[in-house]
Design goal:
Chain lengths: 546, 231
């Protein structure tokens, strides 16, 4: 293991560039608000989703502080608690995590990796951002106009009896869904049609494969959520009867429709995270990825299988034994490509020249937590165990390990990895490493007690609990506070770096994919000369070291 | 990485030039990208209607008698007439696309006008069907559901007759909305086509609206037998 030094020969002074960077080429509010540049749209998304993460995170902290005592410490009524966790779920799932990596990081990085001047459909890209903004404003309006207390899943019949705000929240999610479809559609076309000369499919960086698989899910699964929330709104307004048992409808049909989207949505979250980790692990280990084709095809097979497992959310809702067995088997099947990925990353690090940089620390934290999240998923996919664990804190801890501990950490690994490329500035690496460690520790202190009390039967979504579980809840709250400090520190040094960070080298980490060949920060149309791919992918040279 | 501005070849006779967007290397790349994107969009349409079809098939299984009696109240002759209108409009649309590829300005406009006329005919027939139901007390999306005894004598004795009609109105309503959007898009094509905007060098919008129109037609090809004939 050696200390990281940016490769000097690839680091010309940023002052000697041929064209102004995309940040300097035009100035003013409208040059951003009306931009068609994928990099600026990516940055607007980055600011947007980070703000959403901040809101959702503050709500999460409030939830944890409320659960400090068995009777609840903060919210005066259980109804308010229900509204707060619903809001937390909607913000984190639909507004933060679904667009987080694709719409911000991939928007910035994908065309660079393909050697392209922009995404294939720049106007659609901007439209996607404004739809996201509209959907977010509609979601906030729903909260102001009478909060939604259904949880982010909107299960009928309760969601039909509660406040009218379910309608505007449903339409908000319909709009956010369109934004997500437009992003995915755009990326599929971009990967098919905008690759550099000589860049065949098997010379695509793995991040592109991951984004491709994600995009297919976004395009094919999101419309089903669209029609579901539309029908839910109709149901609420006009009682059309499809999901309402009082009018002949079937609430389990709602669950089928909802999870037909929302299970693939879990992979819309995790697949791009896996792509980020692939890139970070290879660059900071100075080693080609172990099992490139396996990693690429495991992304595709996860995407395919993810369409066939939605029924595992309804093991206790009334499915036939045969259907439950089939869904259980298919759920276990996801573990195979997932394990292939985990082992390939570890094998990539093994024997590499590993630099423990901030992005690498986030990636290692991902590998640890994702193993926990993935393995507990197998517990929940097992029928007999799931009957016991269904709707407990075990489920909460499991999906937070995958969503928060894996996807959000990979998002931040990506932000740290491409930060110098985005802004041409470096953050304070010592602080970045401290925050990575704080977040890894904070996460486990928060959620390991939740696994424990969940296995003992603590139900999710309860505002109060029996005193036996207080010690677990208090540990969990302490962990949440550590997490909060870690994220606050991160926000602080990242903002600081924008103004006072040292100038980044042209190729800060010595990456060898096309994204690192553009000037830092890139030109308006990315490259000085049109890139051509000739050599091998991830070729760091013989015995490459940092 | 700026490359020179690409203008597609434009035939003589008052046709307008088309400049390829800055980030494409060739006009062909631009055309193929737009087409692939549009196919993906059409896939989302199929998935959206797929949800509705799944709900229909499920409830048909749960309340077979309701769906049988409810479906019997739909006029299959009007449905068949509408099927004929949409199929014809698909043909005229295809001819329009061909006219644009061959830079035939006037034929393009006339084929598109015929397409809009067929689509309008479809909407008129739909209006007749909806208003007939309305006059006999079968309302969409309201708590008021009181079918006339002479029109639907044994409907009220069945389980949830409203569910059938709400599904019928939702499915044909969302489809009808797609027809309306298609009519607006074709009207725009007529306006720009008359100005000579589309020709052998650039006819992307005609091609894309054509694809959209065929999918709208195709969805009706599934709706018609499911709603009018299967019961």
């Amino acid at each position: 293991m050696t200390t990281h030094v940016p490769a000097a020969e690839t680091a010309p002074e940023t002052g000697s560039r041929k064209e102004p960077s995309y940040l300097d080429v035009t100035k003013g509010f409208w040059s951003w608000a009306g931009t068609l540049d994928h990099k600026r749209i990516g940055l607007m998304y980055l600011i947007g989703v980070t703000a959403a993460f901040l809101c959702g995170g503050i709500l999460a902290l409030l939830i944890r502080l409320h659960l400090w005592t068995p009777t609840g410490a903060i919210f005066e009524s259980n109804a308010v608690y229900n509204q707060v966790f619903t809001l937390h779920g909607v913000f984190m799932v639909f507004i933060f995590i679904i667009p987080a990596i694709p719409a911000s990081i991939a928007n910035f990085v994908l065309p660079l990796m393909l050697g392209a001047p922009d995404v294939a459909l720049p106007r659609l890209n901007l439209a996607s951002f404004y739809l996201w903004l509209t959907g977010t404003i509609m979601a906030i309006y729903s909260i102001m106009s009478g909060a939604v207390d259904t949880g982010w899943t909107f299960y009928t019949p309760y969601s039909l009896q509660t406040q009218q705000a379910v309608v505007s929240m449903g339409l908000a999610i319909f709009t956010l869904g369109f934004s997500s479809i437009f992003t995915g559609l755009n990326f599929i076309v971009t990967i098919h049609k905008m690759r550099a000369r000589g860049q065949t499919w098997f010379k695509l960086p793995l991040f592109c494969w991951a984004i491709y698989a994600t995009s297919v899910l976004q395009v094919l699964a999101t419309p089903v959520l669209g029609i579901t929330v539309l029908l839910l709104a109709f149901e609420h307004l006009y009682h059309i009867g499809i999901f309402d048992p009082a009018h002949g409808g079937d609430p389990v049909l709602f669950q089928h429709f909802f999870w037909f989207y929302s299970h693939p949505a879990v992979y819309i979250m995790i697949l791009p995270a896996m792509g980020v980790i692939s890139e970070v692990v290879t660059v900071h280990s100075r080693k080609p990825l172990f099992g490139y084709k396996l990693l690429a095809f495991s992304s595709i097979s996860i995407a395919v299988i993810s369409f066939l497992v939605w029924g595992h959310h309804m093991f206790t809702s009334g499915e036939s034994e045969f259907v439950m067995l089939a869904f259980s088997f298919l759920t276990m099947l996801v573990a195979i490509p997932t394990a292939i990925k985990e082992f390939s990353w570890v094998a990539t690090i093994w024997g590499g020249s590993v630099a423990l940089t901030a992005p690498m620390l986030y990636a290692i934290a991902f590998l640890i937590i994702f193993a926990i999240g993935g393995l507990t998923g197998v517990f929940l996919g097992t029928l007999s165990v799931d009957i016991h664990l269904h709707d407990t804190y075990f489920v909460v801890a499991h999906f937070h390990a995958v969503m928060m501990g894996s996807t959000a950490l990979a998002f931040f690994a990506g932000v740290h990895h491409w930060w110098p490329k985005m802004f041409g500035r470096m953050y304070n690496e010592t602080l970045a490493k401290i925050s990575a460690v704080l977040i890894l520790v904070g996460f486990n202190v928060t959620f390991l007690p939740q696994f424990a009390m969940g296995s003992q039967g603590m139900p999710r979504r309860y505002a109060t609990y029996i005193p036996e579980w207080q010690i677990y809840h208090q540990w969990s709250t302490v962990g949440a506070v550590i997490l909060g400090i870690g994220f606050a520190l991160m926000l602080g040094y990242l903002i600081h770096s924008l103004f006072a960070g040292r100038k980044a080298a042209a190729n800060e980490w010595g990456g060898v994919t096309l994204d690192w060949e553009s000037p830092t920060p890139p030109n308006l149309y990315n490259f000085d000369d049109e890139p051509v791919v000739t050599g091998e992918l991830y070729d760091y040279g013989q015995g490459a070291k940092h | 990485m700026g490359h020179s501005t690409i203008v597609t070849p434009t035939p003589q006779g008052g046709f307008q030039t088309h400049t390829v967007a800055h980030h494409f290397k060739t006009a062909e790349q631009e055309f193929q990208s737009a087409k692939l994107a549009f196919w993906l969009f059409l896939a989302t349409e199929v998935m959206l209607f797929g949800g509705l079809f799944a709900a229909y098939i499920y409830f048909h299984d749960v309340y077979p008698e309701t769906f049988q009696k409810g479906g019997a109240l739909l006029d299959w002759k009007l449905g068949a007439l509408n099927t004929g209108l949409l199929l014809t409009s698909s043909w005229t649309m295809a001819m329009g696309v061909r006219a644009s590829q061959l830079s035939q300005r006037k034929p393009l406009v006339w084929w598109l006008v015929l397409t809009v006329i067929c689509a309008a005919g479809f909407m008129v027939v739909k209006y007749i069907e909806y208003s007939t139901k309305y006059h006999h007390g079968i309302f969409a999306f309201t708590g008021l559901f009181s079918p006339d005894d002479h029109y639907a004598p044994d409907l009220m004795g069945l389980a949830y007759p409203q569910l059938y009609f709400n599904l019928y109105f939702t499915m044909t309503g969302i489809h009808g909305l797609h027809v309306l959007i298609g009519m607006i898009a074709i009207a725009w094509l007529i306006w720009r086509g008359a100005q000579g905007r589309f020709h052998s060098g650039w006819y992307t919008p005609v091609e894309l609206v054509g694809l959209y129109w065929h999918v709208v037609d195709l969805i009706w090809i599934f709706l018609f037998p499911l709603l009018y004939l299967v019961p």
